[in-house]
Amino acid sequence: MDILISGAGVAGLSLAHWLRRYGVDVTVVERADALRDGGYKVDVRGAAVEVLRRGGVLERVREVETRVRDVHFVDARGRRVATMSADVFGGREGEDVEVVRGDLLRVLRDAADVEYLFGDWVEDLEDGDSGVRVRFGSGAERVFDVVVGADGVHSRVRGLVFGEEERFRHDLGHHVSIFTSSSAHGLDREELLYAEPGRTTNVYRTAGDDGARALFLFRSPEHAGRPAEQLARAFDNAGWKVPELVAEAARAQDLYFDSVSLIRMDRWSSGRVVLVGDAAYAASPASGQGTSLALVGAYVLAGELVEGLEGAFERYETRMRDFVTANQALAEANLKGMVLSSKAKIWFQTRMLRLLPHLPGRDRVIERITEPIRRAATAIDLPQY
Questions:
Q1: Taking the model in full, what pTM does it have?
Q2: Fold entry, domain 2-169+261-339+373-377
Q3: How far is CA 20 from CA 47, 226, 277, in A?
Q4: Per-residue model confidence as pLDDT tens digits over 236-287
Q5: Other CB atoms closer than 10 Å to residue 357's CB: what's the count?
């Protein structure tokens, strides 16, 4: 087979890696001029850890772990009012890994010796009996046996084949924004979290970073505008060091800004075109499972393709559907604890975090909190291909 993958994100690069291991000819087209660097830190849990192990890249991923140690909750004056382990805060246990998205992409690309077309994209496609004819943004045309849309929440391939994004996007009523700060903010493998009703600010510095990253999570703004303008309105009159972070965000070259959304579809394929990762079943950053879904989905799709093209997409969907449903369900539940609606709830959460290390049966309390994440992360029986 000759397969085109649109998108050099986690799903696309992981799929390319697996397909090349099986001897398939692969081309990856990516609109950006180079591999996207940076981004927020992401978790790899449960079944996804096993996918990395089977792919021979787990140890390389462990070499670039964030190694963040603690999360400090701060008040408006910057005082640290509660502290907890970063692994406990992130719901990680056992072999779970936290890594910066850009670092994971580099590991996956190094493992995927395929043809890359950077600075180009799928402009149009036509699915026919002899394959899928693709016209690229550059004007070039080629025919592929299969085209995979791994191009994210705003997937162009999905739009060309399945229709408008609004049919499939389920907004959770919040936005997320992140940028790289030039300052380390006095942090060394730590993160600071400051909460106000309807908005949360997180600043963290991972191992090996010169600066830090600032992340904003907040209720969706009522008025449109440029990302920096919406961010400024959403955090107007905020305390702590939020005003200076918002001002720096407006000057940042890597400012990311988007809604917190799920993608829900009744089917992920049509003809010889199939979707994987966020393009098919985005779980949003609130789930903490988007990266794991991408890794597992790529593994299953690649395995089913090499078992035989006939029926491959149906088998892929059958194996993945319950896993996707379980992990998407985490998003809305998690979001309620990430962005609190009142000062009373913030006070109560902070108080409980301060008391947690001293509670009898502390470990059992933590297990109950993390159980839904653990259950969703392992909610698939990975086949051997």
A1: 0.94
A2: FAD/NAD(P)-binding domain (3.50.50)
A3: 21, 41, 18
A4: 999 999 999 999 999 999 999 999 999 999 999 999 999 999 999 999 999 9
A5: 12
